[in-house]
């Protein structure tokens, strides 16, 4: 659980806030999405994402760690058997918050928080970098052409690599 913020809390005391977040988390895991106020949704997101991270580990210690806050064993079972395998490929960002119209009675800003169940797709930037790397790999020059391409006068310098003719001369000398 994140440490409670200073100032006004969702339900008054820190313990009440933890209970509210635990109940919201269990409902989100059970139903896949819930409608709540924006502030509660923002406070709920790190709690649920941490639970999902523990569920992806899948060991007994992680299950007991989640059972500290989510006291319903059926919710924890759903988290470990259904939700965690769906999120196995995802590296984070397990939840999505969508703002909706304000509540009628008190005009409170409302939001829908839901679990992201779509398959992971690579980002466009990562795809672009991969294609650039593949293009560079396809255009890799040979070592001899790389030296001549780097500096045209390097072939004339005395410290440059020996030419093919000098390599043949050294090969003939070693034979004799």
From TrEMBL:
Keyword Ribosomal protein: yes
Gene3D superfamilies: Ribosomal protein L17 (3.90.1030.10)
Basic and acidic residues bias: start-end ranges: 129-138
UniProt keyword terms in alphabetical order: Ribonucleoprotein, Ribosomal protein
InterPro entries attached to this UniProt entry: Ribosomal_bL17, Ribosomal_bL17_sf
Pfam families: Ribosomal_L17
Family to which this protein belongs: Belongs to the bacterial ribosomal protein bL17 family.
Protein name: Large ribosomal subunit protein bL17
